[in-house]
Amino acid sequence: MIRENQNVFNICNVLLDILVLVISVFFLYHTSMIQHRYPISFYYTTLLSLFILLIPSYLFLYYEFKLYTPQRTNRSIFSESSKILQVNFFEYLFLSAMCYVEFLNVSADFLISFLVINSILAVIERSIIREFLRLLRSKGFNIKYVLVIGAGEVGRNLVETIKINTYLGYKVIGFLDDNVIGTVNDVKVIGKINTLESILDTHMIDRVIVSIAPRHYKTLESIMACCEKMGVRADIVPDYYRFITSHPTIELLDNIPLISVRYLPLDISINKYLKRTFDVLFVVVASIILSPLLVIVAIAIKLTSPGPIIYKQERVGENAKPFMIYKFRSMKSENEYIDDKKWTQKDDPRVTTIGKIIRKTSIDELPQFYNIFKGDMSLIGPRPERPYFVNKFRESVPKYMIKHHVKPGMTGWAQVNGYRGNTSIVKRIKYDIYYVENWSIMLDIRIFFKTLPALLNDKNAY
């Protein structure tokens, strides 16, 4: 039934997106008319021009950003929200160009207001659709029927994953295997591999997933040929899947496909540009707003203990390149303060009276605005570590160096989840890797707002 229903779902999705556009425009127009900001003639000419431009351009961008691709994953709405925001950004550029050539006659504030309202409504709409489909699948509707070829370790793991994650909406009807008979993981082996064509002909199967080893090349070739002949989608679980992350990318070297085992969103130029632009704007504005506090802290440090106001220390940044990080000095300036092989401990005797306050509230980190402005750091990202610990952890902590694929940050996903300071490195790096592989504008915003309350109640800040 999924084959017939998928087209219906796609049409409904498109219609709902158009409805959101219409509601956004009329809501803003009605509000503007009440405030007497636009004349009545706006309704007949500009509104028509707006819809002529909006509907096809939005549907095109939604398609290009794969917002109409069926999503059977456990990703949060934040992943889809970031795509919606990117669509609205490009839509703003397009509509602004139409205004420039005088095809469209709306003010900049109307345009911005519309895009904000539409973004909010579109995220709400997609959230409702996502949860509705998950509910349907958990109740046994909107199901895709799957045949798994190969009842070995990879196939068994695949079936177990499908059974646990009911929201995916998959149901395994059976295995095909030449060496196994009976039942595996409560799923019956319904035949040998050479019976594939007859099985596809007599069963309702939406997807064939092949989980046999690549060394069985001839068998794999015949399986793919059979699936193509029968018009059934075929997928392969590679035997080396454990080395591939959840977002692999494929590029072509002439006609040879290369699988990149680790997808890095910040390798994409537009993402890197957007993040850098936000960093610079934030630092400039925040520095102006916080300048009185910066001056007060600097004076307090100078008056209460001898030594420099700013402390600098070597850290390891993006691409494992060293840089000097800046902080307000929070410790005594004697020789024991300079210790690149020791973390700060609770009730550390080296910390000054002022230092306890500024470390507890992370005010000592504010000079890193300069690091962000220089481009050594970002506002959000994995925290940078000292070279001694980097060399130590790269040998003892699996995948530790992956965090260095992006710029380090003043705060990060690990920190807002409680892994700051002298906490588990293994758990911390898992959060850092998640950030590196799943970066989005919405994730950065989420981390930023989770950081604010954490500043006042962080048990690991000392």
TrEMBL record:
It is found in: Membrane. Keywords: Membrane, Transferase, Transmembrane, Transmembrane helix. Coiled coil: none annotated. GO terms for molecular function: phosphotransferase activity, for other substituted phosphate groups. GO terms for cellular component: membrane. It holds the Pfam family CoA_binding_3. The keyword Membrane applies. Gene3D superfamilies: NAD(P)-binding Rossmann-like Domain. The chain crosses the membrane at residues 7-29, 41-63, 84-104, 110-129, 280-301. It is a multi-pass membrane protein. Residues 275-456 form the Bacterial sugar transferase domain. The keyword Transferase applies. NCBIfam families: EPS_sugtrans, WcaJ_sugtrans. PANTHER family: COLANIC BIOSYNTHESIS UDP-GLUCOSE LIPID CARRIER TRANSFERASE, UNDECAPRENYL-PHOSPHATE N-ACETYLGALACTOSAMINYL 1-PHOSPHATE TRANSFERASE-RELATED. This is Undecaprenyl-phosphate glucose phosphotransferase.
